[in-house]
Write a structure and sequence with these properties.
elongated, single chain, alpha+beta, five-stranded antiparallel β-sheet, 3 helices
């Protein structure tokens, strides 16, 4: 029994137009399960291809970015007795934008493999640091000679 029959006590008779529309709606629904299953499998495969292409594109981007970064790495080599400056990594805790970021000069006492360097300050205290945090210190940078030309006062 239909809910209409319970409420009104008689069966429901639809007009022909409504019956035709209902039939058309049921007919338009794809009731072929095999065709729907094949379409879903194709959609899943297409999504898998899109995901794989995105993964490959991301990997290509990462490789190019690494290559670009590696080209700009400057390899530093330090020798015994060389003067160096040490990067002050604790500078961020203090205010003052005009404060120097480099401490030193220090003297290189030993160079270890894999980039470690032992340095010594003026008081004789030695400690190991990463070679990437050092830069060469040039004590007496050559100054260019400037020739002065004295102009005489023009005679009136």
């Amino acid at each position: 029994m239909s809910p209409y029959h319970f409420v009104y006590g008689k069966s429901c008779h639809l007009p022909v137009e409504l019956e035709h529309r209902a039939y058309w709606a049921v007919k338009s629904c794809n009731m072929e399960m095999e065709a729907v299953g094949q379409a879903q499998k194709l959609d899943i495969q297409e999504l898998e291809e899109i995901r794989r292409n995105a993964y490959d594109s991301a990997q290509i981007f990462k490789d190019k970015t690494k290559e670009f970064h590696d080209l700009r790495i400057s390899f530093k080599s330090f020798n015994f007795g060389q003067k160096v400056l040490l990067f002050n990594s604790k500078l961020k805790l203090f205010s003052g934008k005009l404060r120097s970021k480099w401490l030193g000069p220090f003297t290189v006492t030993e160079v270890f493999p894999h980039g470690a360097v032992e340095i010594e300050n003026d008081s004789g205290e030695r400690f190991k640091v990463n070679g990437q945090s050092l830069k060469p210190y040039y004590e007496n940078a050559p100054t260019e000679l400037v020739e002065e030309i004295h102009l005489e006062n023009p005679k009136n």
